[in-house]
Specification:
With 941 residues, this protein is α+β, with helices and mostly antiparallel strands. The protein folds into 5 domains: 197 residues, Oxidoreductase, molybdopterin-binding domain (Sulfite Oxidase, Chain A, domain 2, Alpha-Beta Complex), CATH 3.90.420; 152 residues, Immunoglobulin-like, CATH 2.60.40.650; 92 residues, Flavocytochrome B2, Chain A, domain 1 (Roll), CATH 3.10.120.10; 126 residues, Elongation Factor Tu (Ef-tu), domain 3 (Beta Barrel); 150 residues, Rossmann fold, CATH 3.40.50. Helices cover 18% and strands 27% of the residues. It contains 23 helices and 46 strands. The strands form 10 sheets. Strands 17-27-26-25-19-20 form a 6-stranded antiparallel sheet, with no helix packed on it. A 6-stranded antiparallel sheet has the order 35-34-37-32-33-36, with helices on one face. A hairpin with a 7-residue loop joins strand 3 and strand 4. The radius of gyration is 29 Å and the shape is globular. The N terminus is likely disordered. The structure holds ligand MTE and molybdenum atom (MO).
């Protein structure tokens, strides 16, 4: 259940617990200690039991926003924290500003279900659409764009905090959270603790901690040769305030027996090979300085489902994989964890052991020497960002920026920058925001003790900066960074390629491209996940070795060694001797979850016996049962996984799912089939603006209707004719995206798609993968269509369906930009071309760069002219110059515009948004602040 629902269902509980607040509930104690700054430590302590702004030393030392009067409900379970926010209206989520410590970003946790999750096993987990998914739809493994992450500052909001889930998120509802027990077994006093027990028996503490997945920066290794893991960019790192109790305190309480050497942790997630689990050495776990904790809150709020609700282990300065989420069981044992993933994940195997060998020779995984615990030293460049353009006079200063961290509590002691590819280095400035916490001590009911005054270890990332003259940059071919830690560990020049692709920490290099007019474009090594771009792939495509980059050298750098040139396409995915021909009818019998078959590149695979072994969980296979899974499979899997696929090969599909269009849908008056890709031929292309075109595709028959409810979309997929580097590819890659047609349902026999083409440019060298694919199409070419998809349908006459729920609507607001007008236009027609609807009012705010960019303007203006009292149409232009006779708005979408040109929040209102994701996100935030319910009244198309 999303958090907003938690609050709802809790209100009644809370009223009861409020009444019985009695002697057990102690008033808030606030302690402030100031250390350093030349004078001796001075401690003042006060007890606030009435007004939050009493004249306590705390509130006098700095005034507003300090310790609220907070009483948590009983029994305590983390949702109590949220409830408190809601009921007392105090901003308890942030620490008082006067402490002078870095503040937590104010973003509310995500509240909406990403359409990619709808219907899947995580279809109940709210997530931020800005997260870049690294393993298809499921399971959820995701990182923020490096720039978004970095701009958050020291603390990462829950929304953009990276997520690493091996399977589906355990669904823990309120009742389960209330009764959640962490069970101690094995060589100790066997006992179990509810969250209330933990909070009352032990001291509650809050510690700022950076978590890093061991796979951070793995994409760089995967470009060289696909490892056993998926492609993290440099955003697999995030920082939060974690609140809970110290593991060492709890261990002392359960009294480990003689012979106990390891502490084994187990989560509640059910994975193909058992629950997630791993262990710590007891000697480390009992050590207070190591900072390990059992945490129920992140940034002052209950953990989100993705981060381990209701409780997780947090192990500072070690790889993220040790921080077990959804923590259920802790066992004191003579031997280390025997969990499958304790052995088969989070290892750095020796370089000579390739992924194939590692898979066959199991002993490598059981050698304790290859286990990884502490993080290694690492750093990355965030400014300039990938594809950032610098256009500034040579005398200006540009500040290079980035992050650095290490493990084992070790401080980063230097960060060095090279502008000549490592020949000479210069010292960067380093900022350690974590140190601010060493200067204060604070205590309240939500956070417990926030006191690092006695701590010397570094658990968090630091930020480096290096101002440089633009003139100097203009002579550089690359910007390189490396960091060193307290143990004098220095990031290496060369990549330590290893089978799991973990702990990648070679120098982080950003290539500098010099454009005409002294402009520069920057290029990062890779982009996370399947996103294209980065110098590593480019160098590889040019036939050179990406592990030996030479950016400035005019002499061609090291040619690509054959050994590292393994191409995924060379992997054989068929089994020798298998020659059965499988018909589509046979395939169609295997769409169920019991014995799913699927197709990759025309070959059929039977996943029945593999379902429970699949590292991504069985659902990601059953979702594609009976279907062509080529695109998803090829994009996500390693060469090794591809080789493994051969074991499940059972035959070759007769014909192809993609070619066949006349595989008679039952109702052939309708073209679209939600389960099947259907071929459609391009019949004409018409320019409508300098970069937008209308593509008309033929349906099966002249009199056929498309079959698309108003407000829904169609998936289009097509094969690219060129690859991004511009060379002709024998077999182009498949690209796919959802579009809303421009044509009407009553237009029979064809579908028109309005597409704005993002041509390659200096700023965006590859151009839009999909839209460039469109621009390459010639009349007579085929694409494939599938649908309808979407969560919003305009039924007509004031009635709509949102997520399948019927809604009566009188006011429809719409915000769009560019070609985002297409779904909006369909809804407008649904309202104003319906003679039975005489009352529904609509508001449209359409934002474009120049007046010429406004798509479908004639139709919009006509609709508005015909319905002056019901359609409120407003354009805004963001590009200069503004035409002299312009009567509409100027500037980017902002709160004021939304307030003025959209309806006021109301029961019978809704606002639909369609534009670039950042606009959708900020539109949603503004609407929320104006009283709209972001979940039920804001639709992102
Ligand atoms: N129960 C459980 N705990 C888990 C995992 C998991 O899949 N299940 N993934 C681990 C890994 S590999 C990492 S990097 C961290 C990620 O924590 P986060 O998703 O909160 O960022 O959780 C760890 N704890
Ligand atoms: Mo991880």
């Amino acid at each position: 259940m999303p958090p907003s629902h938690w609050i709802e269902s809790l209100k009644s509980d809370f009223r009861i617990s409020k009444k019985k607040q009695g002697n057990r509930d102690h008033p808030v104690k606030v302690t402030v200690v100031e250390v350093g700054k030349g004078h001796s430590a001075e401690e003042s302590s006060s007890t606030i039991d009435s007004a939050p702004s009493s004249s306590s030393p705390l509130s006098s030392s700095a005034s507003e926003g300090s310790s609220p009067k907070v009483q948590l409900s009983e029994p305590f379970y983390p949702v109590s924290l949220l409830l408190q926010n809601d009921e007392t209206q105090v901003a308890v989520a942030s620490l008082p500003g006067n402490l002078g410590v870095p503040s937590v970003p104010k973003d509310e946790p995500p509240t909406t279900i990403d359409p990619q999750d709808a219907g899947g096993p995580d279809g109940w987990v709210p997530r931020d659409p800005r997260m870049v998914r690294l393993t298809g739809k499921h399971p959820f493994n995701a990182e923020a764009k490096l720039n978004d992450l970095f701009n958050q500052g020291f603390f990462t909001s829950t929304n953009l905090f990276f997520v690493r889930n091996h399977g589906a998120v355990p669904k823990v509802d309120l009742d389960m959270a209330k009764h959640w027990k962490v069970e101690f077994t094995g060589l100790c006093n066997n006992t179990s603790f509810s969250l209330e027990d933990l909070r009352t028996k032990f001291e509650v503490v809050t510690i700022p901690i950076t978590l890093v997945c061991a796979g951070n920066r793995r994409k760089e290794q995967n470009v060289v040769q696909k490892s056993l893991g998926f492609s993290w960019g440099a955003g697999g790192v995030s920082t939060a305030l974690f609140t809970g109790v110290r593991l060492c305190d709890v261990l002392k309480y359960v009294q480990p027996e003689r012979g106990a050497k390891h502490v084994v942790f187990e989560g509640a997630d059910q994975l193909p090979n058992g629950p997630y689990g791993t262990s710590q050495l007891l000697s480390w776990a009992s050590e207070p300085n190591k900072g390990m904790m059992l945490a129920w809150a992140m940034n002052g709020k209950p953990l989100e489902p993705d981060h381990g609700f209701p409780i997780r282990l947090v192990v500072p300065s070690q790889i993220g994989g040790r921080s077990v989420k959804w923590l259920k069981k802790i066992e004191l044992s003579a031997i280390e964890s025997q969990h499958h993933l304790h052995f088969h994940d989070n290892k750095v195997l020796p370089m000579p052991v390739g992924p194939d060998q590692a898979r066959v020779e199991k002993s490598w995984w059981y050698d304790p020497r290859y286990l990884i615990r502490d993080l290694n030293v690492n750093s990355a460049i965030a400014c300039p960002d990938h594809d950032e353009i610098l256009d500034a006079p040579p005398s200006n200063t540009y500040t290079l920026r980035g992050y650095a961290y290490s493990g084992g509590g070790r401080r980063i002691t230097r960060v060095e920058i090279s502008l000549d590819e490592g020949s000479t280095w210069r010292l960067a400035e380093i900022e350690y925001p974590e140190d601010k916490f060493r200067e204060v001590a604070y205590d309240d009911t939500i956070y417990g003790k926030v006191d690092l005054t006695a701590s010397d270890l570094c658990f968090c990332w630091s930020f480096w900066s290096f101002p440089v003259l633009v003139e100097e940059l203009s002579k550089a071919a690359a910007i390189t960074v490396r960091a060193m830690d307290e143990g004098l560990a220095l990031q290496p020049r060369d990549m330590y390629w290893n089978a799991t692709g973990m702990m990648n920490n070679w120098w982080f290099r950003v290539a500098v491209h010099h454009l005409e007019g002294d402009k520069m474009r920057f290029e990062h090594p890779t982009m996370a996940g399947t996103q294209p771009g980065g110098w590593m792939q480019r160098i590889k495509d040019e036939g050179r070795d990406p592990t030996q980059p030479r950016f400035g050298d005019p002499a061609p750098a090291a040619p690509l060694k054959d050994a590292s040139a393994e191409k995924a396409s060379d992997v054989v995915m068929t089994k020798p001797g298998v020659n059965r021909k499988i018909t589509k009818a046979e395939l169609a019998e295997h769409t169920g979850p019991e014995n799913p078959w699927f197709v990759v590149q025309g070959e059929v695979y039977d996943a029945t016996t593999y379902l429970n072994e699949h590292p991504g969980g069985p659902q990601s296979i059953t979702l594609v049962a009976g279907d062509d899974a080529t695109e998803d499979f090829m994009a996500i899997h390693s060469a090794d996984a591809k080789r493994k696929l051969a074991e499940y090969h059972i035959g070759t599909l007769e014909g192809s799912l993609m070619e066949e269009t006349k595989d008679a849908p039952v109702d052939d008056t309708i073209f679209l089939n939600p389960k099947q890709w259907k071929k459609s031929k391009l019949v004409s292309v018409n320019d409508v603006s300098k970069d937008s075109k209308v593509f008309r595709f033929a349906l099966d028959k002249d009199e056929q209707a498309l079959g698309l409810p108003t407000g829904q979309h169609v998936y289009v997929r097509l094969k690219r004719k060129t690859v991004s580097s511009g060379k002709k590819a024998a077999d182009g890659e498949m690209v796919q995206r959802a579009y809303t047609p421009l044509s009407r349902e009553m237009d029979k026999g064809h579908i028109d798609m309005l597409v704005k083409i993002y041509y390659p440019s200096n700023v965006f060298p590859t151009g839009g993968k999909m839209t460039v694919g469109f621009s390459e199409l010639e009349v007579g070419d085929m694409v494939e269509l599938k649908g309808p998809i979407g969560h919003f349908t305009w039924v007509g006459n004031g009635s709509a369906l949102l997520h399948g729920k019927k809604r009566t609507l009188r006011q429809v607001g719409m915000i769009c930009a560019g070609s985002g007008i297409t779904p909006i236009l369909q809804v407008l027609r649904g309202i104003f071309e319906d003679p039975s609807d005489t009352t529904t009012e609509a508001w449209v705010l359409d934002i474009n760069r120049y007046a010429d960019d406004i798509l479908c303007r004639e139709e919009l203006d006509t609709l508005a002219a015909r319905n002056p009292s019901r359609l409120h149409l407003r354009y805004s232009l963001t590009g200069q110059p503004i035409p002299p006779d312009w009567e509409h708005s100027v500037g980017r979408m902002d709160l004021e515009m939304i307030k003025t040109y959209l309806p006021k929040a109301s029961e019978e209102g809704i606002v639909c948004i369609c534009g670039p994701p950042p606009m959708e996100q900020s539109g949603k935030e503004s609407l929320t602040s104006l009283g709209w319910n972001p979940q039920e009244q804001v639709v992102i198309f």
